[in-house]
Amino acid sequence: MQTIFIVDDEENIRLLISKYLQNEGYQVESFNSIEELRKRLDSGYPDMFILDIMLPGQDGLEFCKEIRQHSRAPVIFISARRQALDRIIGLEIGGDDYLPKPFSPRELMARVRSVLRRTLPHQQPSGCSECGNMKLFPVDRLILVNGKTLKVTTREFDLIALLMQHPQRTFNRQELLNRVWGYDYMGSERAVDDTVKRLRKKLRASGSDTTIKTIWGYGYRLDGQIKKHFE
Question: Which of 161, 146, 164 has its CA nearest to residue 206?
Fold first, then answer.
């Protein structure tokens, strides 16, 4: 699980970002100042910083220079200041993205995913995950059932891969839309139901002993015995 540190002196902003990140499956810690954060860094650095520029005491731009002396963890700046110079300086001193306030939480989540994909490719799941007689290879985007390839669409693969990464978790339809289709998807939750229906049909036809279970009134989870998680 990737860890993200949020540094912002506005509590409502910290709570809002934390909620969205946690719904995305990230581990989150938040701080209201650089001084508070610095004490925590004695125990290690996160996988990403979301850093406000305008902070009491030391500002985010100056602190980013310190971060770069010890870590390559990506930094996304957020700021109520909209001057182009802030964005330029932020990126020049080692920031990876910049988002002016007020911003859409969905846009921030999309940028978090994009920056992590771009800067931390080594942390993407590798190896193989097994559930019953089904094996899923995330890097190769390959699913085998009893050694035979299960042909699925991109969305079908992403959906079942997500469920296999969280075998004990039930996702509601909106969560699945956000995680698989993306926050910018404008369609209805019916897309999830249709994709699950197709996947179930393909799994049955392949002889898989794994399926996707409906949790009535809520959403879906994987129904099968996980043998090996992603490495």
Answer: 146
Q: Is residue 121 within a helix (H) or strand (E), and if so which, with residue range? A: none
Tokens of 148: 């035979």
**pLDDT (tens digit per residue) in 18-34:** 999 998 889 999 999 99
Cβ(111)–Cβ(118) below 8 Å: no
Are 40 and 17 in contact, with CB atoms under 8 Å apart? no
DSSP state of 46: -
Q: Is the pTM of this model over 0.70?
A: no
Per-residue pLDDT tens digits for 80-135: 766 666 667 777 778 888 888 888 998 999 989 888 887 765 444 457 888 889 99
Give dist(CA 177, CA 40) in Å, integer. Answer: 34
Sign (positive/negative) of CA torsion 201, 207, 208, 213? positive
CATH code for 3-123?
A: 3.40.50.2300
Give the residue extent of every domain in the chain: 3-123, 129-228
pLDDT exceeding 90 applies to what percent of the chain? 32
By C-alpha distance, which of 40, 38, 39 is closest to 28?
A: 40
Q: What would the two tokens of residue 163 be?
A: 């469920």
Short-list 215, 132, 134, CA closest to 171: 215
Q: Which two tokens stand for residue 196?
A: 């699950």
Average pLDDT over residues 137-165: 88
C-alpha 216: how far from chain center: 26
The CATH number for 129-228, chosen from 3.10.450.50, 3.20.20.80, 3.40.1350.10, 1.10.10.10, is 1.10.10.10
